[in-house]
Every structure is written in structure tokens, then in C-alpha cells.
Write a structure and sequence with these properties.
Blueprint (H helix, E strand, L loop, with lengths): L1 H9 L8 H4 L3 H20 L7 E2 L13 H4 L7 E2 L6 H5 L1 H11 L3 H4 L7 E4 L3 H11 L5 E5 L8 E4 L1 H9 L6 E5 L6 E2 L2 E14 L2 E14 L8 E8 H12 L1 H33 L15 E9 L5 E7 L12 H18 L6 H12 L8
Parallel strand pairs: 1-2
Antiparallel strand pairs: 3-6, 4-5, 4-6, 7-8, 8-9, 8-11, 9-10, 11-12
Length: 372
């Protein structure tokens, strides 16, 4: 995308990018597109090695950008913008649901869940109905189509609707999530927060939460909770609203809850990624691939309740960073800042030891680490 091209160009990289083909005349496209396809085929198979970073813009785990066996032979300086296996752990709606369903059995997340209760349909329909009946309360549930996105395909279900699902032999692939009670509203609108998360290492897990992000105002239940596209805040505006309305301590509590939900989600995914690497790269028992060449920018959408506890609703492995037309200047600046910081972090030369020490200090609440 254009924002990445601009960010890399400012760092003096030569960028080979498909949009350069689109800018040419019809007579030139065929030859240039063939040339680009040949280059990517050589990269995918490992024959072309004269590159530094491969930005995979395919909505997949990266298997269309780089052959799995090539990962094992990359040069130390080469980077790929995909973490293999992450799509089937967090990125897809049903994958996130499955991962968080298993996490419910972990003691650390039983009392303070990271994500709403969730079931995959149709395979877990009976389990869901049994759980819904056991609650014996006027609980509501949210059903999302696995194939839909951007707030589409969302339905609010009541108890009678659940019985209809059972009677109709429901066979469409979807997920059902617990309807979060006492949701945080701004005015009359439900609000959700989207944050950018950059994962630069999976072993050890290293994650950066960007200061930029967006807060989306949502339509009411009858309109499927769709986003009010003309009403979007920056995360900074949302935090300012919390400080002004509820006080500084509440704003800090909400921010810490968002950070904790993001980190917990990735900690839950970490051991599953190890298994995914072992299967993908056909490693023997005990073998472990650190994926030192991998990084990935994610966006996570979270919801807060009125006690400012945050839960993760969705994870996107390819956040939309395309430029908006006139009128979207502030959001374009937001996206440019994210892309620039991704490039700077991936190719930064500064050590992270001091930052890690500060983080440990903040967790322990005492100056017990003094880096040299």
C-alpha cells in the first residue's frame, strides 16, 4: 500500500510495488506485470535473494508470498511481514473463538476473561444451547458470520432465537459471542476501540502497542451495531473524553485494561504458535523455530464495559492502512504514523534492554533492575 511505500522510501529503500504497474499505460501493463510476477515467483521459491523485507499484502498467513521451506533459509537481515500460523490462531473469527474457548480453562483467565464467551457453529451448537439454558436468564447473544467483516452479518439473538436455531438444523458457519452487559457508551452510542499492535518477535514475545488508534461509534442493536463511519475518534480523543468525564484514574484504568487484554491475547497465542511452526516446518519432536525473520502488524478491536474492563472482540492480521479521500486527512496522518513507526522499529538499531528493565520496574513497583 501507498503508506508503506512512502515509509520505506523515506528510509532509502528501493521498493518494488504492484501499484507501479497500475500507473502505467495499458500497453505497458502486460510486460511489467509479467516481470513482477516472475520476481515474486522467484522470491516465493527462494531463487531471488536480493531483498531485505517482503511486505505480504495477501489476506493469508503468507503462504502465497513465501514458500514455507524458504523461511528456514532466509539471510539474517531479511524480514517477512507475516507470522505463519497466526491466521488460524487469532486472525479469523472462528480461530479467535476457538483459541479463547480453550483459554477459559486456564486459571489465569477464568476469573478475568480476555474475550467474551464464544462458540463456533454449527460444530458447537449443542454446547452453546446447553450453556445458554444453564444460565437460565434473559441473556442476549451476538451471532457473527465467519465470512463477513466490517460489522456486517451481525445478529442479536434472544432465548427464543436459540431454540429456533436448534429446531432448524442450523448449518451455516458462524460464531456466537456473549453479549457484553453494561457496555460503555458515549452519549447514546456504544463505542469500541481499535488499537494497532506490532509483533516483532514470538520467542521471546515482543509486542509494541502504538499510541495511535481509533474509537468507533456504533449503531444501536436494531441496526446490527454497524460503525457510524462519519463519527470516528482518535484513541487520544477517547482518552481525553474519559479523563474529562470520569477522571484521570479511570482513564488510566481503562488504558491499562486495554493493554492487559492485548498482551494476554498474545500470551495465549504464543504456545499455539510454537505448535503451528512445528507442523508447518515439519520439525521433529522437541524442534523449535523462533521465526526471527517474522513480524506482523495487527489491529485489535476491543469493547469496554461500565467498569472499564476491556475484552478483545476481533483481531485483524492486515489492518486497513489505505489512504482515504479528501476529508480523511487526520485518519490518513494516523495511518502514515503507524506505517512509519513499523519500518523504524523493524530496522531500528537501538537496544531494548533499558525499555525491558523499565517495564519490569513498573510491574514490580520498585527499582529492582538497574541496566548498565
Amino acid at each position: 500500500m501507498a503508506v508503506y511505500k512512502e515509509a520505506f522510501t523515506k528510509q532509502h529503500f528501493d521498493v518494488v510495488y504492484p501499484s507501479e504497474v497500475d500507473e502505467k499505460s495499458d500497453k505497458e501493463i502486460d510486460g511489467d506485470l509479467l516481470n513482477f510476477t516472475n520476481i515474486m515467483d522467484s522470491v516465493w521459491n527462494g531463487r531471488e535473494t536480493d531483498w531485505v523485507v517482503l511486505m505480504c499484502l495477501s489476506p493469508t498467513d503468507g503462504e502465497h508470498c513465501l514458500k514455507p521451506s524458504v523461511y528456514l533459509n532466509l539471510k539474517p537481515y531479511q524480514k517477512v511481514s507475516r507470522i505463519p500460523g497466526l491466521r488460524n490462531i487469532l486472525w479469523k473469527k472462528d480461530a479467535l473463538c476457538s483459541t479463547m474457548f480453550r483459554a477459559r480453562h486456564m486459571h489465569a483467565f477464568h476469573q478475568s476473561p480476555v474475550s467474551p464467551l464464544c462458540w463456533i457453529l454449527p460444530s458447537q451448537l449443542d454446547q452453546f444451547i446447553a450453556s445458554a439454558q444453564a444460565l437460565n436468564s434473559p441473556q442476549h447473544w451476538v451471532m457473527k458470520s465467519v465470512s463477513s467483516g466490517r460489522g456486517q452479518g451481525i445478529k442479536l439473538l434472544k432465548y427464543d432465537d436459540i431454540l429456533t436455531l436448534q429446531e432448524s438444523s442450523f448449518n451455516t458457519r458462524a460464531v456466537i459471542q456473549e453479549y457484553i452487559p453494561n457496555q460503555l457508551h458515549v452519549g447514546k452510542n456504544l463505542i469500541t476501540v481499535m488499537v494497532y499492535v506490532l509483533v516483532t518477535s514470538t520467542s521471546p514475545l515482543r509486542v509494541y502497542l502504538h499510541e495511535e488508534g481509533r474509537a468507533f461509534f456504533r449503531q444501536p442493536q436494531k441496526d446490527g451495531f454497524s460503525k457510524v463511519l462519519e463519527h470516528v475518534w482518535h484513541v487520544a480523543q477517547f482518552r481525553q473524553y474519559l479523563r474529562r468525564t470520569y477522571g484521570v484514574l479511570t482513564e488510566q484504568k481503562a488504558s491499562q485494561s486495554i493493554e492487559q487484554a492485548v498482551v494476554s491475547t498474545l500470551l495465549i497465542a504464543e504456545p499455539l504458535l510454537r505448535n503451528a511452526f512445528r507442523q508447518l516446518f515439519q520439525l521433529e519432536d522437541g524442534g523449535y523455530y523462533q521465526c526471527q525473520h517474522c513480524f506482523q502488524l495487527l489491529s485489535m478491536e476491543l469493547m469496554l464495559n461500565k467498569t472499564f474492563h476491556a475484552v478483545v472482540m476481533e483481531v485483524n492480521g492486515q489492518p486497513p492502512l489505505s489512504q482515504l479521500p479528501l476529508g480523511g486527512d487526520s485518519r490518513n496522518s494516523n495511518k502514515q504514523s503507524v506505517a512509519k513507526d513499523v519500518v523504524n522499529l523493524i530496522f531500528g538499531t537501538s537496544l531494548v534492554a533499558r525499555d525491558v528493565a523499565r517495564a519490569i520496574d513498573s510491574v514490580l513497583g520498585a527499582n529492582v533492575v538497574n541496566p548498565v
